[in-house]
Design goal:
The protein has 18 helices and 15 strands. It is of the alpha/beta class. It has three domains: about 220 residues, HUPs (Rossmann fold), CATH 3.40.50.620; about 90 residues, Tyrosyl-Transfer RNA Synthetase; about 80 residues, Structural Genomics Hypothetical 15.5 Kd Protein In mrcA-pckA Intergenic Region, Chain A, CATH 3.10.290. The strands form four sheets. Strands 1-6-5-2-3-4 form a six-stranded mixed sheet, sandwiched between helices. The longest helix has 21 residues. The radius of gyration is 24 Å and the shape is globular.
Length: about 425
């Protein structure tokens, strides 16, 4: 089953219209038939989220947005939490097998991921159209021999070897264990189980999941002789080709405990000019006519569009109050030049500063450089500042006099990265 050409006429269904207009649609197994199904009635569709971390990052944000639009257009989103599949790990496009997690780790990750998803999807009694389910409910109970007998004849190893994710591993002679090879089978079975339990007829995901999704579509067709569909969103990279959601400090997490709201806001505020309009379409619900108005902005005015993007994405993830606070911190820091107490803070023993703390160590300690050598390069390039004063001497020392009345020392790396050392 190959990627279908998406140059069809304007879809009749509201949902596919939204996906197509905003650039959220990349592949579909049968677009016209899915459009008819969406036009004729409301459908149930799912996306799975494994519990391999205690937070999702913005690499998953596009899929969350797709579920949100699905709900807004009157359809039934099914959030599948991979409590079962997380015990194996998806090998898709990864050259090393995942570390196996304990039951306790998976349970903790599951709760955190549910909390994130609840911010985006309506659980109100008025909606009546959201299902959140854990595939451990059925995968933990599978009897291996019975499973092989019932479904083994429907699963093509030839097809699985042709999946791009598997070929990448094999072509590079990286190990692919039998454990991981079974992941695709279990994901296909998930789709079958959701079809039987909830009438789910559509699985969605990122384009790296295309092979697994097609596998599930074919399994249902062979076992139940029913028509279901698969649909993917594009994998997003910046205009420079960089992978979406990666920074010099790591992933852009959706959990405030792993990434401060301010740093989350700043990530979106600092994207490249060429990405602003595309990201407004993909990651916000701003009407497209307003996006078109912002598209004509140029020069310094494009910064206003970036602030709108940052405000909207942060509002959806962390709430309006948190978004406003992050915007105000940014205003104080960049527009006014003040030392805002809302900047990310790192506690440090006051005695270390008063005894003399090297600027190099302070930059690393604040998380603004990955190593001392990187901090020295920053100083040599003129990008290091202490309390807004540029530091050019690699041997410079921070002393007690640099601690302001509120107990902070502001550390800056370039124009965009700032943190506060909080003397305790």
């Amino acid at each position: 089953m190959k990627n279908q050409d998406l140059t069809m006429p304007v879809p009749k269904s509201d949902y596919l219209n939204v996906l197509m207009e905003r650039g959220l649609l990349y592949q579909c197994t049968n677009l016209e038939a899915l459009d008819q199904a969406l036009t004729g009635s409301r459908i149930a569709a799912y996306i799975g989220f494994d519990c391999t971390s205690n937070s999702l990052h913005i690499g998953s944000l596009l899929q969350i947005i797709m579920l949100r639009w699905l709900q807004k257009t009157g359809n039934k989103p099914i959030v599948l939490i991979g409590g079962g599949t997380s015990k194996i790990g998806d090998p898709s496009f990864k050259f090393n097998k995942r570390k196996l997690l304990s039951e306790e780790e998976i349970c903790n990750n599951k709760l955190n991921i549910k909390n994130i998803l609840n911010k985006y999807l309506s659980l109100s009694a008025a909606s009546h159209n959201l299902i959140m389910v854990d595939n451990a409910e059925w995968l933990d109970k599978l009897e291996y021999i019975k499973f092989l007998r019932d479904y083994g004849s429907y699963i093509s190893v030839n097809q699985m070897l042709g999946f791009e994710s598997v070929k990448l591993r094999l072509d590079r002679e990286y190990s692919l264990s039998f454990l991981e090879f079974n992941y695709s089978i279990l994901q296909a079975y998930d789709f079958l189980e959701l079809y039987r339990r909830y009438g789910c007829v559509l699985q969605m995901g990122g384009s790296d999941q295309w092979g697994n999704i097609v596998h599930g579509v074919k399994l249902i067709r062979r076992v139940n002789d029913n028509k279901v569909y698969g649909l993917t969103s594009p994998l997003i990279s910046s205009s420079s080709g960089a992978k979406m959601g990666k920074t010099t400090k790591g992933a852009v997490w959706l959990n405030e405990e792993k990434l401060s709201v301010y740093n989350f806001w700043q990530y979106w505020r600092n994207i490249k000019d060429a990405d602003v309009i595309r990201f407004l379409k993909l990651f916000t619900e701003i009407p497209l006519d307003e996006v078109s108005r912002l598209a004509v902005l140029g020069g310094a005015e494009i910064n206003e569009a970036k602030k709108i993007l940052a405000n909207e994405v942060t509002r959806m993830c962390h709430g309006q109050i948190a978004a406003n606070a992050a915007a105000e911190i940014s205003h104080c820091t960049f527009d006014v030049g003040a030392i805002s107490e809302g900047l990310p803070k790192v506690d440090i023993d006051r005695r270390k500063i008063e005894a003399g703390l090297s600027v190099v160590n302070a930059i690393v300690y604040a998380g603004l450089a990955s190593s001392k050598s990187a901090a020295r390069r920053l100083i040599r390039a003129g990008g290091a500042r202490i309390n807004n004063a540029t530091i050019l001497n690699e041997s410079a020392i921070i002393a007690g006099k640099e601690i302001n009345n509120a107990g902070f020392v502001k550390i800056s790396a370039g124009k965009k990265l700032h943190a506060l050392l909080q003397a305790v």
